[in-house]
Amino acid sequence: MRDSIDFKNMDIAALFRKLLLPTVLGMIFSALFVITDGIFVGKGIGSDALAAVNIVAPLWLFSTGIGLMFGVGASVVASIHLSHNKPKTARINITQSIVVSSLLLMCTSTLFCLFAPQVVHLLGSSERLKPLAVEYMCWFVPFSAFTALLNSGMFFLRLDGSPNFAMFCNIVASVLNIILDYLFIFPFGWGMFGAAFASAIGTTVGALMIIIYLSRRNCALRFYPVKFSRNSMKLMKRNVGYMCRLGSSAFLCEVAIACMMFVGNLVFIHYLKEDGVAAFSIACYFFPIIFMVYNAIAQSAQPIISFNYGLNETLRVRKTYLLALKTAVGCGICFALITIFCSREIVAMFIDRSYPAYDIAVKGLPLYASGFVFFAINIVSIGYFQSVERAKYATVITLLRGFILLTLCFYGLPLLLGKPGIWLATPLAELLTTLFILIIYMGRKRNGKENSISLQHGNHAKEILQEV
């Protein structure tokens, strides 16, 4: 059932709540899957298995990032076309995004699986962890296209006025994951294969639910037949290129988490060996959960901002952004306090006190949590720039926080502060990025632009995206 949503006239606070509640609930269930997957792997297989999953995790984040990139890009341009009463063009946009992203991931997944030992070695695996990492990778990576579709489909369902069904897709996928995870790891004793296969089945079922929804004739946003004429292919190439530019920062946000895991794994294994990687893996299980909530807030604001941006409703856009920012900061404070005061309980969920990684993680998590509030500001700000077609701002901020500053902090802080510096690398990178965003804001304020959105590119999507 489609929900009663009016992006143009509905009160911003009520509209934001209507989108936020089901989006956050769906993300919470996804977070529960991530947590329970880590618990089952740690308790059922061991700390080496946790470390092996952390080695392979960047590949999962890659497929998630592809889904978010095409989801954000297609939903922004589709929002603008819907605000201009062009549903056919919006349908073409989402169809093109799903087809191209699926084909792309089928190709990359095949390459990853064909060269699995070499890939896990490049991701920083030691010889001790390599067999576990290869086993997990070969049973999960082939389903990457469904992982991407589950992520991109959330944007299309919410834009179509069905945030509750989007939430339901996430819940079904997550609950199925949790049940199968337990069955495959404990009663069946399938080890890493069971953990990977359970995740693959859950995401595939959630993606198939989205396909069924978008195939229905009574949906405003639904699949549209793809044409293969030469002119149609040229237009598709141009459309997809523009969608990728708009959503590139969403992809880079996921790749940034992968970069954090990759560089972190290298630094932790250098200073603290495999036990350090196992401890870091607990933080890495926890970090995407925080990201999911912040991302849910940004994704809830995105269709409101994009739709009203297409109508030049500056005040509604600004109000939505500020509301999303306040919500994210409040959540960031809560997450930081919970992590700081409950670090022992959090670590104990994943591994027993007998493992050396336990003490390493207990000492490190409170330091790691000090950056959660800055992370909230950065993610919501990136989402805002995406929604108003300011892809360059969003991309620069993402590259700064997720790659440049992060890498410098990971390698520089341990030299200055020792082992605590490894845990403080991510918080410092997020803090410096927040300061950069404030510099952008102050520069715009000095130019007298703080109360308006530049609309010089307002019709860019209209000029580039044409009906096939």
Automatic annotation (TrEMBL):
Signal peptide: none annotated. GO terms for cellular component: plasma membrane. Keywords: Antibiotic resistance, Cell membrane, Membrane, Transmembrane, Transmembrane helix, Transport. It is found in: Cell membrane. The keyword Metal-binding does not apply. Its main location: membrane. It is a multi-pass membrane protein. PANTHER family: MULTIDRUG EXPORT PROTEIN MEPA (PTHR43823:SF3), SPORULATION PROTEIN YKVU (PTHR43823). Belongs to the multi antimicrobial extrusion (MATE) (TC 2.A.66.1) family. MepA subfamily. This is Multidrug export protein MepA. It comes from Bacteroides stercoris. The lineage of its organism: Bacteria, Pseudomonadati, Bacteroidota, Bacteroidia, Bacteroidales.
